[in-house]
Amino acid sequence: MNPNAYQIPRRTFLKGAGVSLALPFLDIMSPAISYAKAKAERADPVRLCVLYKGCGVNPHSWDIFAGTETEFELSKILRPLAPVQKDILILGNLDNEGVSSHMDAPGTFMSATRHRDKNRYSFDQQIADRIGNQTPIKSVQLTADNVWKQHPWLNILSHDKTHQPMRGQHDPQSAFDLIFKNSARAKRQMELASVLDGVKDSSSSLLRKASSQDKQVLQQYFDSLRDVEKSIERARANGQVAATDTKLTEIDPSLEVGNLGERIKAMMDLIALAFWTDSTRVASCMLANTNSRIHYNFMGVNAEFHYVSHHVRNKKVLPAYDSINMWHTAQLRYLIEKLKTLPDGSSTVFDNSLILWGSGIKHGDYHSLADLPLVLAGGGGGQVNLGRHVRYPKAQPYANLLLTLMKLVGAPAPSIGNSTGLLPGITDQANFAPVNPDDGSWKITKSDGKTLTAKGLLRIEIEGEQEYYLLRLSDKSDLRIQVPFMNNHRLRFDRNVGKVVTLTGQYKENGGKKVVVSLKSARAQ
Amino acid sequence: MMLARQPLLAAFAACALAIDSAQVYAAEFAAAAEVIEDRCMSCHDSDIRKGGIDLTPLLERANASYGKHTKLWVRVEKMVGRGEMPPKNKKPLEPNQKQAIQNWFHQSFVLREGKAHIGPTPLRQLTRYEFENTLESVLAISLKAPYRDTITGRIEVSKIALMVPSNIPGESGFDNDAHRLGKLRPPLNELADAANYALAQFRKNPAAIKAVLGRANIPNNASDAEVKQIISKFIVRAHRGHDVRLAVYTTAYHGLYQKHRQSSKDSIASLLHVFEMILVSPEFLYRMEQSQDRNTPYPVTGLELATRLAYFLWSSPPDAELLKLGRAGSLLKDTVLKAQIVRMLNSPKRITLSENFAGQWLGFNDLIANSEYLRDERWNRETYDEILFFIDELIRSNRSVLELVQSDWLYKRTTALKSKGYSYTKADLGSMNRLHVDIFSNRQSKSRNRKLRYNPPVMVNPQGDREGGIITSAAIMRMTASKTRTSPIRRGVWVLNTLIGKTMEAPEDVPPLEEAREALNIKRNPTVSELIKQHVSKAVCNACHKEIDPLGLGLENFAQFGEWRTQYPDKEPVIASGVMPNGKAFQSPREMKTLLLELYRDDIAENFARQLFAYALGRKLEPYDRVSLDQIVSAAKRDGFKTNTFIEEIVLSKQFRYRQDR
Questions:
Q1: A-contacting residues of B 194-233, CB under 8 Å?
Q2: Which pLDDT tens digit goes with each residue over B582-591?
């Protein structure tokens, strides 16, 4: 590859980063580039990044109802991904299990296991524990949302193998230091190794004399000590990035970020840079937590994200809710585009990455765990077949996706959570029958002037605070359904959206058109 | 011979007691089980499981001591004790039935083999906050973000806080929870970097070197004996006065010093390298105590008590005086201990109780730590200081805890003193001056530029009855609202949870507002009070909301940043009236607070005791802490709920002064 090719992405990279980032990053690039070059000789490893956003989605703005696996139209929330539609794989009908509360959602998303605090070993950490020893940093955890001291679980994705929570870095500057400075400071690492050696020598007798309860606690200390030692050894063995460059220690990128947009951008840049320099192969970022109190006032939303996510009883928040979710998919696009600019061996970092974007719940108000909103991106080293929308005809365990990702990253496991096996349709075309094919039977089958029975594909329309449903019939006409809230609610009619439904109800003629005004029953196919 | 026989006799007595008590428990267990069988199982058996509660396991004798059903027992005892179960529409328990449950609970969960005990004492680990304070103290340097007297537009965080991740609070609600900390691997990489940074500051500071090493500089070519002496002195400092195995430690660290010297020309660098080891060693990061490996309580040593006391009241290691009294053992005497508490609460270092304890308990440290609350630097610092200084004044002047709800004084930010509709008189200057001498002396602005000058809040007596206490402070009003609107429910829940100490779980199946709207036949966009009214329509909601709603409604006059209002942005009038669960009505925030005190006075006091006790012990309270807790609360009650009585009683408790290993 032309060595000058590295120049271009560097500039693009900087253009995206905040102004305060620009100058120091120029300096940082130099050792990083030489490292990236050296690394290009080796096999290109697969990296994993999880982008999590709490508070679910409005299903009607998320779901893709029709089309084929490769020919489909993006839904409203997915529309920001249009420029990279060929680079994503949208997955539908994957169910997680358990009761999803605000507190449980992130942990459940990462481990496909329900109980908080128990058996929480998250899939990213299972991967990091397997492949993390090949990079200076085992894994990176970031969070753009705030930590709510009383409810830390809301904001924590990763759990280590002892099922303990791993805090995310909220401050991009600290994250930068952690990823690039500590591991780059060869001299400081020597010092640290010596410090820890010394501690081990002088304090080893402590364990012998402690009570059995104290011993368990101290064991955590000595485990941590061994972890740090191992990471130092790894850094040495890997011929550390910047062992050559002492300049790194003096750089202060001043990543002082006031607003959320800048913060997330800085975090995406950090992930891209960390992946590019092969500083780590596992990263996660909490874009918004599961009870997020963020005000997206920069997009004119003057209410908390969590508040607007409870939209069933408060329809006027829907436009705000959708636009926040669209902003979250736009962050995925940003990362995709960034990774595509970074050369990696004979391809790009994007081609060698796997990005899982998703939320631990589907419906923002009902907190449902069925049919999670998920997007996969990145080639995974040429393994993933992108540019598709795969909706499984029969619901699959979400755990199977995690199991599949673990395999693709090169850290296969026998099982995780309630997994039953690998998920089909990721590496190959799924070739499922088209979603909701019209077999010509969508029509009004009975009507006696008062009551009718009809079959068709149900969708929802919202105008301001007004919402109504339309049943698409085979003759391409729509039957309008406008019923009182409680009628809708008791039948949970809302859940049939996107499905082929047979319904019975009373109707009125309105300008020659039938309008269903009260529902007796509704049954999805 | 007598001596030899004594242990035997004791063993015999213990054995007899065990047999004896086992029989007693059997009878008591049978009595309790009978009550549960007769009165609870019609709703709480495995089939019906009303409210998700199945009491079947409690009928097994094997499940009736500490184990996986402890939580269920605690809940049963609480509901029965409070008279909340059986529910109102059922016949209440007979006094002897209630007694049977309580007796059994007391025997098996509060006592152990018929005796009060304190449960296993967890190993305490320094939190990030304590780590920073301890480094400051051991190295005689300053690491905290300086208290700036000007406005620069950002809230400063200390270097240590940037380097070391914050702690996750445990079940106690505080980040010093030993059970939580004990399960996590300490971030050694970050802690070592922080210690390294602190030592670099130390090296640049001649005064610090003098204070720590007792000499003006570190000799470049010191003799072995000299170096050993320096190291040994430093170890004692870092180990909080303990000199257990000092010679062994000194020899080991001196060896490491010499090893480093071989590759370094700079003897000071070698010395600091060894200091860094000492500052990341477990002896420094953990508050080690000598274990006697016993399952009954035994007193800790004087030095250990000095450390416990210092971290409780100062979040810092013990100072010279505490160390001296600890080493001599006189600290173990009640009179000496009490005198030390008084001395320590007169020291500026007591501010950590407000910053660290109250900041976490009431949650106001989020005003500084959580960027979601950032409005502008001045507003956040001022409102934070208002509540911080308020709490400090409670402790400094030994006032009643109930003043948290209502007081005729408060700290007010100077920028709000002339607000429309408010008037204040400055509180007596004598106390103000005293205040400035200790904690706040360096917080007065010297800046000439008035626009940039930051002046801390001042103590005033508010005129009129809008303000008083902390519930209505700008800090709390902001933290219990969203940025754009207030929520009476959130505020009510905050008062009930945080101040009164009633924990509630969010309802699982909330009936939609629409249902209530239809039931009440109200318009599409109901007003706040209409919205609240809907809860009344459902008995299942009303059970909790009759307590929550009035507390929040009574605060509706305060907008989300704490400013007074009489109408909402949509011009609807604010109606801050309601009815408390005891049926008494109020018309204003002040009246609500009066009723709040009338109704919940003892709960507020008990909750304060619980929170402070849990913070002091670094763990959540357990049933066996009840004996001590009752003692703390009743002593404080006798004493008009004075803050320092709570503190003193906690320090005098067995939990605080004793240790138990199993």
A1: 196
A2: 899 999 999 9
